[in-house]
Amino acid sequence: MSNYGHKIRHHWVNRDSYKDLLATLERGGSSLIGLDIDRLSSRDQMHAGLLDATKTFVEWIDLKPGSSVLDLGSGLGGSARFLASACSVAVTAVELCPELNEAANRITRQLDLEDKIDHLCMDITAPCDLKTDGFDLVWIQHVDMQVANKPELYARAAEHLAKRGRVVWHDWLAGSGGPVIWPLFWSADGEISFLADREEFTDLLKSAGLEITRLEPIPDLTSSWFEKSRAGLSRVISKMKSSRPASSKPAGMGSKLQAFEILAEEVDNALLNIREERLIPFFGEAVSR
Length: 289
Ligand SMILES: C[S@@+](CC[C@H](N)C(=O)[O-])C[C@H]1O[C@@H](n2cnc3c(N)ncnc32)[C@H](O)[C@@H]1O
Prior knowledge:
The chain is of the alpha/beta class and 289 residues long. It has 10 helices and 7 strands. The chain has helices spanning 3-13, 16-27, 37-44, 50-61, 78-86, 98-110, 150-159, 198-207, 219-243, 253-275; strands spanning 68-72, 90-95, 117-121, 135-141, 161-174, 210-217, 279-288. Strands 3-2-1-4-5-7-6 form a 7-stranded mixed β-sheet, sandwiched between helices. α2 packs across α6 (98-110) and α3 packs antiparallel against α5. It starts with a helix and ends with a strand. The structure holds S-adenosylmethionine (SAM). S-adenosylmethionine (SAM) is lined by residues 8, 12, 45-47, 73-75, 78-79, 94-97, 100, 123-125, 141-143, 146-147, 186.
């Protein structure tokens, strides 16, 4: 794995949502009973708006049952499982971090979805033969902003498309409002963030033989998702702070509180970046030219 790959891996395996999920998987037994797509969604949907966003995005792209989907940068596989179970599509889910890919695979098996989802661990910018006749849909959700080598990413996306296939994005672009304010959930300081602005994005796609058919900024929708999670986080944080005096808090509660406070800061920054147009969340769609 490259130095860039190691940094990305280090970032995601140290997130609290991954550690929580891993602890649940490690405990196994009864704690796994009742795991379903809804109940998992606060931990395995690694993007703004969680499952609500995935459902809205699926409607936006009008996904047909029976389609073949390539999920590039699939994380813990939350969206792949939703697509496979709710939309009756076959998914190939590709993820860079072996730990996330392994956890994704375990949950998929636990939910009996292994016939519908293949989990592969690889860099999505590396050339490879995945499906000779290509995919109906290449799905990119909160991944583009973290990929440094965009020409390779778009070249691969174009190569993996079936005839009349589409590449779709639920992702982020750089806006014109000034430098991004950190930390955000995909990067603490901007080191593993590689945002393109709308013009660069369009030009890079053109060079890869892709043409944008739809691009819709979704700042209000994304802000409403973040405001909802911020309200939930505030409630949890004040409950933790008021539950007991610091000296009698159970071991680990301090670090849990700290993790929630970092999350709250990331959500506040996301809201600020959107409001000041430093970041543009969007839904997008492209086809082969
Ligand atoms: C914000 S998470 C989104 C995960 C998933 N798409 C979702 O929405 O739940 C970004 C994911 O992209 C993965 N990623 C980043 N660069 C990658 C690359 N070059 N190849 C494969 N995966 C990559 C990260 O490891 C991480 O799991």
